[in-house]
Amino acid sequence: QVQVAESGGGLVQAGGSLRLSCSASGRNFRRHAVGWFRQAPGKEREFVSAMIRTHTYYADSVKVRFTISRDNAKNTLYLQMNSLKSEDTAVYYCAVRNNIVPVRSPGEWDYWGQGTQVTVSS
Q1: In the chain, helix, strand, coil percent, each to 5?
Q2: Are strands 116-121 and 10-13 parallel, antiparallel or unpaired?
Q3: pLDDT tens digit sequence for 90-110
């Protein structure tokens, strides 16, 4: 049984920063594609960022502002979010894929956390 859990969401003013964390039991982050998605009210879930080994991938909307990283010793994934904008408001999900290929379609990821709310006030 793989369990994924996110933490670190909250309310922040525009221009501020937050760091999300993700842990997973039953999967070694070094051997799988791991990623972050988000879903705003009334919108579809969308790709934010992914990581496989040392390769990182970002949606154009967050490139430069967000940084994905991993602590191998803790088997924990992070998403550092800087210069937050109101349009970044969403529930953020951590996902793990039974594959080393990181894809952007949410439907191709295998395990999901329950999500953590990020609200950016303008």
Answers
A1: 5, 50, 40
A2: parallel
A3: 999 999 999 888 789 999 999
Counting Cα atoms < 13 Å in the Cβ hemisphere of 54 gives: 0
- Chain-centre distance of CA 40, in angstroms? 14
**Cβ 99 vs Cβ 35: under 8 Å:** no
Six-digit token string for 37: 């998605």
pLDDT 10s digits, 47-88: 999 999 889 999 999 999 999 999 999 999 999 999 999 999
Check: CB of residue 80 under 8 Å from CB of residue 19: yes
Q: Which residues contact 67 (CB under 8 A, 6 or more apart)?
A: 79, 80, 82
Tokens describing residue 118: 């990020």
Task: Give me the phi and psi of 18, to 5 degrees please.
Answer: -145, 155
pLDDT tens sequence across 5-48 = 999 999 999 999 999 999 998 888 888 899 999 999 999 999 99
Q: Determine the residue type at 114.
A: Q
**Best CA proximity match to 6, nearest among 60, 78, 54:** 78
